[in-house]
Structures are given as structure tokens and as C-alpha cells.
């Protein structure tokens, strides 16, 4: 178990808890990913979500068709223009998800101690005695006493609207189960999860490939959330597919860890993926409840030391139906921040919940409060020790920039980058001040046409804790003359002033390349 990253005043000043929270110019350092859907797809609502702190919009094709999601994304683009706030796009794959289709759409009442049969026969109507599942091999991979969870897609796991089933016997292609709790399943789509049971379906399905090849290419998606990642090879195959799709070679892959297989191969997956999503909903089914927090802390620590963003899911489920989180949920969000999470992913709460804007607002406030007591000094020392010596050149520069920022109490770190790597290395050390990332576009060619990179790299910073990107004029290279650097730095500082994170007499740490040298310098804002 890792040491606490909680910093408290000595003696603890409990009266400070009663003081009003002071809002930050850039909301929280921790990023918030919102899933867009029926409750959050019109322009006005999306504008409110962006203003509340959403930095990445997630699109889940487990339900809804391409036209529905395209309309939502078009509305997102309008909201971005209206609010002048950057927002990245994340496509969440369906993957090897077990689904039950309720064609009749009538509520299904399941009663404790009664039996229900899971069948691969898609012609069967879903009812209280029969549930058609989309996996023909289910009967060959489960055995008596296995547990299967069934619930409305993206729901909270409430015991009145989701059900636990115990496998009693396998009857040919069918699986007879005992209902362990009474529940009413509503809607057209339910998901099933067999605890600890390997499912022999491809991680990147043919459906996923088609969506990426058409909708993904058309919309230049920034991230793929690779559902049910079980092996490093899953990530490699997804990257190979992206490499054949024009500009999508720049798309980052976040491996979604949501079952025992992914947990067992976590280290190898982390090496291949660009980031990790801890899908605690399904993990909470595969793992005993008392073990979930251990995996969260261990996985977040590994991600932190590797310098790769880590996203935590399922934190304020109750806000799907209520305007306030429970005490446990509020504490859970704060603990995720103190454990080093880069972002919080919201699912049903924003997709179809009653309070999508309120959800992002309160999660942002909790994250901001937790960040105030995050012990960055302890985290910095631990990270430097884990990296060891000799440090790589860029790692040394990044850690020096963070150390300098802490020592001089800089209000912001400004970093110039083309690939985003320098910015991510700075973020690895979790500086207590925001990092203004100036992304310099780079001219590239595939021998058929010339194009600028930079837009992907800027938006991808929106999933990393503490990074706030801006895209520079492509006429200014990342390593150029002193006069050009001074000119673009002034633009960056003016941006910081307008955003409210830089004011008179502040000290600024700047990390940039000058010729063949990487430079960290400290400037007084009075000079500008």
C-alpha cells in the first residue's frame, strides 16, 4: 500500500472546513469525462457541461446509431465554438460485451428464488423466464455456482433495477439460473457480466472497426476507450487498425480494465496503452468488494510512475436520479484524486441522468478541494526515486521544471511542445500549479500530401491532470529563434492572463527548446 498523499495543516484547522470554497480559474486540475446521450446532447446543455468543467466527451456505441451520435457530436462542436472551450472526443468500443435485447420493451420482473434461462436463441422474447443473450458459447464457459450480473445498460447497480443470477445447470446451449434478488429490468438493452469467466469474443469487434473506419475517421476522434482490454496484444491490434486510417494514427488508446483477465495482465497492458481506464463497475463484479480499493490504489500508482493518465469510473452513481452525491461517493471522488487519478469518467449520470450539469459541477468542486490537500512534495520525491538515475534528458528537464515551479511558487508552468511528450512528463510529477501547454504544429507528409499535426496533441492534453493546452501559430516551430520564442511566449502569457491564472508580479516557469538545448527558465511577469 502506498503512503498517503494527503497534506493537512498542523495542527489541523477544522474551522477551515466551514470556509467557502474559492473557485479556480481553470476549474479543477483533475479532468472530467462526460458521456453524452439523451440527457446531454442539445447545444445548450453541452455548453453548460463545458462551462462546468467537462474536458472530454465520451460517445458509447453500445446503444444508438451513427446518425444519433453524429448529431450529438455536431452539437458538441457548436457548443465548443460558442464557449471557446476545447473538448476532446472519446469513442468507447462495444468489444466483447454480453448483451440482452428486450425487443418488446416491456418491464421484466424477476423474483427472488425463481428460475430464468439465458439462451442464445435471438428469436426468443425477453421475459421473466427467458433472457436471450448475444453469446452462443455462454453455456460452454460457465459452470454451476458461477455468478452472472444483469442490469440496465449504464445503470448504477441498484439492487431493485439489476439482478444477480447463480448458474444452476447447463442445458445444451442454454443456462438455467436462480434469481438471487427481486428486480425489475426496464429498457431495450441490458448487459450481462459473468464474474471471472473468460469470454471468447474479440476485443475490437467488427462493429467497432466499422464505426472507427467511418464515424471515427470523419470526426478525427482523439481517444479510443478499448473496452474489456485483456492483453497487450489487444492494444497492439487496435493500434494497427488505426495506423491504416489516415490521421487516426495519432489517436490515443486508453485500455479499459474491467475484468480479471485485464487485471492479471495489467503491467503488459500499461506498457502498450496510452492511458488506462479503471472500469470499476465490472471490476466490482469480478473482484470481491473488499479488494476493489486495493486494485485501484495499486493500478493508479503504477500509472503515475509510468507517467500515463489514469481515469476512474463509477463514482457518483446516485446522481443519476438525485441532485447530490452520497457522503461515501463524495469521499470516493476525493480519494481518487488523492490516489493520483488524472480524471473522473461519468456514465449514466450525464448520459441519461436527471442532473448532468449538477453532476459535473459537484465532481469538479470535490476534485478541486482534494487537490488543495494533495501532498505534492511527497509525491514528487517518490516519483523521482522510482525513475532512478541516470534520468533521461527530457525527464530531467521536466522534473526540474516542476521543482523550480514549487520552489519559486510559480503561478503556472508554460511548456512548448509538438508531440505533447514534454507536457506529459511534467504532468507526471503532479505539479500544484497549472501547466499551460503551447502545442506547436509540425508539418508532416505521407508522400501524398502535406499536413500539420498539433490539433490531436492539444486535445489529448485534456485527459491529463493539470494540463491546459493551446494551439500555437504553425509558423512558429517548437525550437526556433529567441525572438520568435519571446513572441509566442507573450501570446501564451496573454492567454493565461485572460484565463485568470496569471496576474501581476507572478513568477512563471518556462520549459522550451532553444536550438539543440532544452531550457528551463524563471521569469517575472513584470517584464511583460
UniProtKB/TrEMBL annotation:
Recorded hits in NCBIfam families, A to Z, give: pyruv_kin
Q: Which cofactor does it need?
A: K(+)
Identify the residues that the record assigns to the Pyruvate kinase barrel domain, covering every copy.
29-360
**Protein name as it appears in the record:** Pyruvate kinase
Q: Which InterPro entries match?
A: Pyr_Knase, Pyrv/PenolPyrv_kinase-like_dom, Pyrv_kinase-like_dom_sf, Pyrv_Knase-like_insert_dom_sf, Pyrv_Knase_brl, Pyrv_Knase_C, Pyrv_Knase_C_sf, Pyrv_Knase_insert_dom_sf
Family of this protein: Belongs to the pyruvate kinase family.
Residues of the Pyruvate kinase C-terminal domain: 395-515
Q: Which reaction does it catalyse?
A: pyruvate + ATP = phosphoenolpyruvate + ADP + H(+)
Identify a single GO molecular function assigned to this protein.
kinase activity
UniProt EC number? 2.7.1.40
- SUPFAM superfamilies of this UniProt entry? Phosphoenolpyruvate/pyruvate domain (SSF51621), PK beta-barrel domain-like (SSF50800), PK C-terminal domain-like (SSF52935)
Q: In which pathway does it act?
A: Carbohydrate degradation; glycolysis; pyruvate from D-glyceraldehyde 3-phosphate: step 5/5
Q: Which Gene3D superfamilies match?
A: Phosphoenolpyruvate-binding domains, PK beta-barrel domain-like, Pyruvate kinase, C-terminal domain
Keywords per UniProt: ATP-binding, Glycolysis, Kinase, Magnesium, Metal-binding, Nucleotide-binding, Pyruvate, Transferase
What is the uppermost EC class here? Answer: transferase
Gene source species: Marchantia polymorpha
